[in-house]
Every structure is written in C-alpha cells, then in structure tokens.
NAD-capped RNA hydrolase NudC (Pseudomonas matsuisoli), 278 residues
Amino acid sequence: MKLNVWKPAWLDSETPGGKALVHSPEGFLVGSEGVLFDRAWLSTLDLPRAELQGIGTYDGIDIFVYELDSAVVISDTEWSPLRPLMMNAVDGHAYRMLVYAAQIATWMRHHRFCGHCGTATLGINGERARGCPACGLRQYPRISPSMIVLVTRGDDVLLARSPRFLPGVYSTLAGFVEPGETIEECVHREVSEEVGVQVRNLKYLASQSWPFPHSLMLGFHAEYEGGDIVLQPEEIEDAQWFSLRDLPQLPGPMSISRYLIDTYRAGRMGEEKPSLPR
C-alpha cells in the first residue's frame, strides 16, 4: 500500500509543475479528486490570485497554496470550510498538510502590507517570511500558544460547549496564553474563568497545531480540586460533569480534545490508548 507522506518546506514559488491547494475566504477548493489540483490546469483559469507560496511535498510531489481574493465559481468544483476537510482527512499526513496550508494562506492574507509603514510586502527568498522594501520589517507566520485541558474527577470528566460548536458537541476547556503568563498559569486562569472551578496536578500530554486561525494547542490533564460550575456566559453555553460510560457527542478523532478524552478513558477502562495525528 502506498504511504502518503507530508513534509513541510519552503519552495520557490517560481518552481514549475507540482500540485496546489486553492484557498479563499470561503475555505479550500474541492474537486472530484480532492483538494490538490495540477498547477498547469490552474494556470489556464482567470483566478483572482492574491498570493502564492510553495509549502512542501506530499508523496514526493511539490505542493503550493494559492490564496485568492474571492471564492470564484469554477466548473465541477465547490468551496469547503477547513474544519470538515480536516475531520475527514484520509490520513494524518493529509490532515497535517491541510492544517499547514491553512495557516500559511491566512498569514499571506494578513501580511500583504507592512504593519509598520503600510508598504506592500514581498516574499523573502529562501525562508518563510515577508519583508517590507521601505522600512525593512520582516514578518513571519504567527503562532499563538494556547492551552487545552481535560479536567477529571475519578470516572467523571468536565466538558463544556461553546455557542460556536456544532449542535450537541461538548469538548474540553481551552484558552489563549496572555502576555507575561506561563502555560500553567493559563490553565488555572482559563478553567476558573470559564467554569468557576479550581484544578490541581497538571500533567502535560501532547501538542497540536490548530489552524483557527494559528494556534499551537498545548494539551493537559488536570484533576478537580474544588468549586461549583459557574459559566462564563460570553464563552460557555453549558458545562457538565459526564461519566466516562455516558459521554455526549465529542469532537472528531483528529482533534487534540478528543485525544485527551480518549487517552483518559483508555487508562480508566483498560482500553488501547489512542494516537494523536502527527
């Protein structure tokens, strides 16, 4: 069986051939054969292309990402948001390629002009950066550290849902690190703010790149220490303790949230531990 392997790398955008993902404010372009298109075919279309980056290789083929100003209508294709594509990726390598491409495309869209003087930026040869020809400022892809934590109490887990979630889905708690804050302090603060409880015995488990829009999720397990559930209304729609034997609808298996839940359940129930997509 053929193994598809994704390797991120800087590629000269002028390199001929290869395949490309096409991204716009509406998501990724999808055709009958998936999200990868021959660049030769794309060159025959009148695309409102804003930016182009070579992002690496997939199964040994050079891969590029086109960032479009708008989601144009292209025969026999449709536009899809990133999340369903991620959750339905055929393997971990395809998942990582989509995550990486989405973050690079977002970075290209947000850094077309210098944040210091407003001049149009240019790609820097040989590295993933954009430079200002007027003042020299260089801008690199942004990464925002955040924590995600599973809070447990024996065979019960504390799960919550945001108004942004799909109907019925509950997940672990998460939040961005504030300036001057450690990741551990962030865990304690976010849990207290969002659901009003205190935790102890933090244990780091794994991390995952999360492209909404450019997060690095640092995953923890924490034990419940005290307090009653009090919701932060602008962030949390509902939060409850759930038994591992009676869990609600959970996030997809590609997410680190699901990994944290399944890992704890496996340890308590004597099941095989899951693996996080890498």
